From TrEMBL:
Keywords of the record: Calcium, Endoplasmic reticulum, Glycoprotein, Isomerase, Metal-binding, Repeat, Rotamase, Signal
Signal peptide (from-to): 1-22
Record protein name field: peptidylprolyl isomerase
The organism's place on the tree of life at top rank: Eukaryota
Domain named PPIase FKBP-type: residues: 51-143
Gene3D superfamilies: 3.10.50.40, EF-hand
PANTHER family in UniProt: PEPTIDYL-PROLYL CIS-TRANS ISOMERASE FKBP7, PEPTIDYL-PROLYL CIS-TRANS ISOMERASE FKBP7/14
């Protein structure tokens, strides 16, 4: 089940990693993402929301000269990208641009530098400073994200609203058994240690709902 794939629990799959910090400034406040819907399927559901796991293809262009700096179809053997919406796995402008979008929908979005790579640009991605970006996006799937309330409750067997090492260890065993891949026994311990290192921010040996970053806080 792709929606609960173990890797997504652990590793953000960034198309272009989000910049470390957004560019501030008063001019930025007036700038926003422009969205043009190129194709809207009927019926159009489910609509994407924060925390959903999306599968999409997109091409990125520089607004200044129309040159293409990114194409998901030429990477990763042409597979569409999976990422969690609204959590900073992609640049801020894409997190905004892909809200309320349904499978089959196509959009052309224009993202100002303040919601992309700002004054620094992104040399590795061939994006100059202060670049306005245009993305053409085709969305294929909208799934419940790996960090959803459902996933949390599934791991939290004793319902104490926090995940213990034993609970996550059990969950890893089930996930490993499900995907049937051969792994070295030490992989389990390494992944478990990594999960706690990355998620147990207060170091109390448990991952709380807040640390797990569940999106619908009111449901817990």
């Amino acid at each position: 089940d792709m929606g609960r794939a173990l890797g997504l629990l652990l590793l953000p799959l960034a198309l272009l990693a989000a910049p470390a910090r957004a560019e501030g400034g008063t001019a930025a406040a007036a700038e926003e993402v422009q969205i043009e819907v190129l194709h809207l399927p009927e019926p159009c559901s489910p609509k994407s929301k924060k925390g959903d796991l999306l599968n999409a293809h997109y091409d990125g262009f520089l607004a200044s000269d129309g040159s293409k700096f990114y194409c998901s179809r030429t990477q990763n053997e042409g597979h569409p990208k999976w990422f969690v919406l609204g959590v900073g796995q992609v640049i801020k402008g894409l997190d905004i641009a892909m809200m309320n979008m349904c499978p089959g929908e196509k959009r052309k979005v224009t993202i100002p530098p303040s919601l992309a790579y700002g004054q620094q640009g992104y040399a590795q991605g061939k994006i100059p400073p202060n670049a306005t970006l245009i993305f053409e996006i085709e969305l294929y799937a909208v799934n419940k994200g790996p960090r959803s309330v459902e996933a949390f409750n599934q791991i939290d067997k004793d319902r104490d609203k926090k995940l213990s090492e034993l609970e996550i260890s059990q969950y890893l065993k089930e996930e490993f058994a499900r995907d049937g891949k051969k792994r070295h026994p030490s992989a389990h311990d390494e992944i478990l240690a990594d999960i706690f290192k990355k998620n147990d921010h207060d170091g109390d040996g448990f991952i709380s709902a807040k640390e797990y970053n569940v999106y619908q806080h009111d449901e817990l």
